[in-house]
Design goal:
- By secondary structure, the protein is mostly helical.
- The protein has helices at 5-11, 19-25, 37-58, 64-74, 77-86, 97-101, 108-126, 128-138, 140-145, 148-151, 155-165, 207-222; strands at residues 172-179, 186-193, 198-204.
- It contains twelve helices and three strands, in the order αααααααααααβββα.
- Strands 1-2-3 form a three-stranded antiparallel beta sheet, covered by helices on one side.
- Helix 3 (37-58) crosses helix 4 (64-74) and helix 11 (155-165) crosses helix 12 (207-222).
């Protein structure tokens, strides 16, 4: 039995002036035209902004590239779905019969979309400050656990360390293509992680740069940052 939205709102410490916004945030598109997709779009934007600002203030000495990677480690489908499960959001989702039967309330994509839609609903109902407070409270532990030292390392190093930590085979880099005049060549490299059967490709002005770019793409894939 699907639990009532007002029970979740109370659990999350939220009071809506327009409760219908919160109900819509929990409504999947399988229920028809009145669903949470537009609220999700809004929530995604405000979430990115709030986390970016928090990281900007928390790590004043970090460069843009490091801040971007830190944000990507927090603002992604897997991270949002994990937070949704912590608050049992799946128990309150309003799904069509097909999604309900197939276990849509457990799916990462549906859970993460609902989390962002809730943020969008708070923004519309209570404004930026209230939405920011909610997001920072939600991500408090994740933000506190971040160690900027790990993110200053280049992508190839971080990918290698990830595989070593998981006791898996190290990534392999293959040159796929080399084109252009001698002074202006473009290299395309494939990164392969055998145990996961995953591959990524990237190009660069040197083989080293192409390998780093391919490693970055692989990190995003394995960390669940690619939508």
């Amino acid at each position: 039995m699907i639990r009532k939205p007002e029970q979740l709102a109370k659990k999350l410490g939220l009071q809506f002036k327009r409760p219908e916004l919160f109900k819509m945030a929990l409504t999947h598109r399988s229920m028809g035209a009145k669903n949470n997709e537009r609220l999700e779009f809004l929530g995604d934007s405000v979430l990115g902004f709030v986390i970016a600002q928090a990281l900007f203030e928390k790590f004043p000495a970090s460069e843009e590239g490091v801040l971007s990677r830190l944000r990507a480690s927090l603002v992604n489908q897997a991270s949002l779905a994990e937070l949704a499960r912590q608050h049992n959001i799946g128990d309150y989702l309003i799904l069509g019969a097909g999604e309900l039967k197939s276990g849509g309330f457990r799916r990462d994509s549906i859970l993460s979309d609902a989390m962002e839609a809730i943020m969008g609903a708070i923004l519309l109902d209570q404004g930026v400050a209230a939405c920011q407070q909610f997001i920072l409270g939600l991500f408090k532990e994740k933000l506190a656990a971040l160690d900027v030292g790990n993110w200053n390392k280049d992508p190839k190093t971080r990918l290698q360390e990830m595989m070593q930590a998981r006791q898996k085979s190290l990534p392999v880099y293959e040159l796929v293509n080399q084109a252009g005049a001698a002074h202006q060549q473009t290299f395309t490299v494939k990164c392969v992680v055998p145990v996961h059967h995953e591959t990524t490709e990237a190009s660069g002005a040197s083989r080293k740069k192409a390998e780093q770019a391919a490693a970055e793409k692989m990190l995003q894939k394995l960390e669940g940052n690619v939508s």
